[in-house]
């Protein structure tokens, strides 16, 4: 799986929760886990726009909790499997412990506005936006539109937001062109 051997995260899911699930991708020797360690988890959160680029607080245990959340998220979005209530507990613990602080403040025009900020630099607070995105996907999203790339060696998932609802590849630039070229060669060799 040559195109996915780079450690660069893929943000093709059209949903933060799916992009988080896609933080592990590839198969066999060509697999990669963006959440392999705490530094990798922080880098993924920064790349996803969920953390300021200058963030440098220690986050011991972040990768382990992130991988646990990712495993649970992948199970919860799978419509072919029965959901385990213990998986909800993992998500609920992060949502509760990482709940953002909300305060009412005045803006520049003296108009009251709701300001929301991360509670602290705990692991749960760092992962709360991902858990919230998963909650929204499960309760408000169209899980029937979640697809897995049809390339035989790709594990990426995405939310199919096309009008026809027939998207097949994680990305035309990565898997789509590769699979179309392979199909063309197979047809040509069959002649």
Q: What descriptors fit this protein?
A:
alpha+beta; 191 residues; 6 helices; two-stranded antiparallel sheet; single chain; elongated
Topology diagram in text:
Elements lengths: L15 H6 L2 E2 L6 E2 L4 H10 L14 H16 L7 H13 L3 E6 L5 E6 L5 H17 L6 E3 L8 E3 L12 H19 L1
Antiparallel strand pairs: 1-2, 3-4, 5-6
Helix pairs in contact: 2-3, 3-4, 3-5, 4-5
Radius of gyration, in Å, reads 19 Å
Give the % helix: 40-55%
Shape: elongated
Quote the distance from N terminus to C terminus.
Answer: 27 Å
The overall pLDDT, averaged over residues, is 89
Major β-sheet strand ordering:
1-2
Note down, in words, how this protein is organized.
By secondary structure, the protein is of the alpha+beta class. 42% of the residues lie in helices and 12% in strands. It has helices at 16-21, 38-47, 62-77, 85-97, 123-139, 172-190, and strands spanning 24-25, 32-33, 101-106, 112-117, 146-148, 157-159. The strands form 3 sheets. A two-stranded antiparallel sheet has the order 1-2. A hairpin with an 8-residue loop joins strand 5 and strand 6 (157-159). Helix 2 packs across helix 3 (62-77). The model is unreliable at 1-6 (pLDDT under 50).
Characterize this entry briefly.
This protein is an alpha+beta fold and 191 residues long.
């Amino acid at each position: 799986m040559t195109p996915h051997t780079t450690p660069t995260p893929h943000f093709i899911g059209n949903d933060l929760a799916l992009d988080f699930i896609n933080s592990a991708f590839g198969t066999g020797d060509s697999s990669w886990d963006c959440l392999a360690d705490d530094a990798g988890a922080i880098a993924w959160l920064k790349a996803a726009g969920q953390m300021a680029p200058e963030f440098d607080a220690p986050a011991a245990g972040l990768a382990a909790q992130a991988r646990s959340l990712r495993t649970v998220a992948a199970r919860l979005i799978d419509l072919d499997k029965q959901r385990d209530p213990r998986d909800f507990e993992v998500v609920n613990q992060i949502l509760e412990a990482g709940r953002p602080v909300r305060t009412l403040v005045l803006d520049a025009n003296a108009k009251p506005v709701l300001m929301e900020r991360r509670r602290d630099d705990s692991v749960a607070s760092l992962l709360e936006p991902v858990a919230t995105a998963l909650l929204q996907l499960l309760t408000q999203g169209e899980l029937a539109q979640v697809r897995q790339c049809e390339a035989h060696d790709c594990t990426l998932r995405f939310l199919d937001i096309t009008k026809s609802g027939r998207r097949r590849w994680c990305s035309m630039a990565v898997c789509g062109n590769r699979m179309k070229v392979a199909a063309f060669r197979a047809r040509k060799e069959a002649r």
